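To close the chapter, one final illustration. This time we ask the reader to focus less on the individual chains and more on the assembly as a whole: which components sit near each other, and how the overall shape emerges from the parts.
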Amino acid sequence: MRIVLQNLTKAFPSRNKKSNEEVIAVNNFNFEIPDGKLIGLLGPSGCGKSTTLYMISGLLKPTSGRILFGDDDVTELSTENRGIGLVFQNYALYPHMTVKQNIMFPLQNLKGQDKMTKEQMLERTQGAARLVQIDGLLDRKPSELSGGQQQRVAIARALVKMPRVLLLDEPLSNLDARLRLQTREEIRRIQQETKITTVFVTHDQEEAMSISDMIVVMKTGIVQQIGKPQDVYDDPANLFVAKFLGTPPINVFEGSVKNDMLYVGSDPVLAIKGVADQAVTVGIRPEGFILDEEGPLRCKPVNVEVMGRDVSVVSTHDASSNPFVRSIINADNKIDVTREYVRYGIKSHKIFIFNKETEERIYFEVK
Amino acid sequence: MVESKHQWKAWLYLAPAIVLLLVFTVWPIINTVRMAFLEDYSIAAASGGEASFSLGVGNFVKVAQYQDFLVCLKNTVLLCLITVPISTLLALLVAVALNSIKPLRKLLQTIFFLPYVTNSIAIGMVFAAMFNIVGSLGTRRPLIQTVGIVNNVIEFFGGSYVNWINNGSSYWPNMFVLIIYIVWNALPFKILILLGGLQSVNKQYYEAAKVDSTPRWRVLWRITVPLLSPMIAYVVITGFIGGFKEYTSIVGIFGESLGPAHAPGRLNTMVGFIYDALAQHHQGRASAAALILFAIILLVTLINLQVSKKRVHY
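The assembled structure is written out below.
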């Protein structure tokens, strides 16, 4: 099912009763989610991603704008009639029901021609349980399950009625690190097997990048960028997106453009054209550094962290906005941290420049 | 142990409460048991110091043989069995309704809670007036003119009046009024407990149910009731205990005659029986009846607990 969000806006009345100011949680969101894709809504807390999800679910009414499922306008449709599956952050499994009863519950609500016999329900329940690999746990109560198992039950319950759209609210936030890796692959697999259009919310960029077909990066209710994870990473629209995606995060420097030369501090790092002379903010991805004895960027090395295949060089630079500059280079290179400077060349597609005030990306050509 | 050094202090702080409990609760309980098993006990003889009483179950035999006692037992059990389920169910519905509205909730909550803080005897008198039939304004009907609001309403809709509680009324109309009164009186406490329980239920269960298009009645029976089951069990058990001690309501409506004028004592209960026995200085008989009442309450509570073990979730 294709989902279309048109000028979607949600304003909450201010907590402070005296002021009439509203809090805009989601501001003019436009997006068309293609059928059968897995979409990650990504952003720091308070960015409006969950609000967007709950508006798609119908549990929240948008202040303005429209939501379409395929060609149906569902904006005014209540949650009950939208045919969605929703997995809550805390799973919201009914504690008094067994796993089987929990999964079967949505089926028992079906009416009219969708009504099922007991056998059909049981079959579907077992099918959903198999899909999420909990078919051995059907007679347990939720309290007797681990977090990961509860998560699977919640997904099975959301999937069992074959929803038009599957929504997941921070599905992995209650799991430990190992389970999180495993479960996100599961979600990907289940989504690909069922081909149900799926939207999930997360604040973990790695999680979103690793399994989404497309990600939507949001900040304070405003969509910053939409695209395939790799595209957004390689081509961020502004400083926020560049900083939000990537571990370790991007290195940010004070810089300037003078006579078609990009400077980081006083180091001339790249000859470019098409940009007027101005002070800029420069972002360099950690993997954008090349060890080069003659390289233009001079950093003072502090420490080398060995990560196996790669090493992470921690150094300082006067123009850096962060205390440390982090570069990731192949472990074959030996770095002498006792030297005064370590010199780098820069991969031109890993360096971005941004307007100092608006933080919008400034595009340039390499000379 | 470090604590043992200070143990006397702990006892000292507990002493006021313990002394009061010993004098006014523990000793009376022991004494009740003692008196129940003494034959022909009388305070006058006992305080004279010369009397010695033999042990026996005579009091229990006597109590069981009293026609009055069987009437009281029947009334008490009937009132319990009828009012507790009705008031629990009504309280549940009211609590769910209150919980699902926002405007006027505080006002309605106060209104529903009023019976709890109002004098039962006064409420009983109001009920008696509402279900009255006798009046003196008769022009249309020379002998009997209905003035009670309930009969007025019945006549307004074309029915004929019912003799609820007045002279000559029959047993079930009497019971009906009592049941209404007791249920109404029992509601506030139950609503309060259940509403408290509802407010602590995670709202996400309801959102999840909504996503799954669950009809309202199914949400009530499959989600709300099971999640509230500990509170429901609590109000049922305390309801039964309170029900077996029913007495004030009967005095409130029927006065000290405990029944309509032509049949005094017809609506008496176990507690009433015990009071009567005490008033007639039959301490032994009163004690025996009190122990029987205690045994019944204990038994019912045990049954309740047994049932709730299977029905109450987590």
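The mean pLDDT of chain A is 90. The longest strand of chain A covers residues 22-33. With these observations in hand, you are ready for the problems at the end of the chapter.
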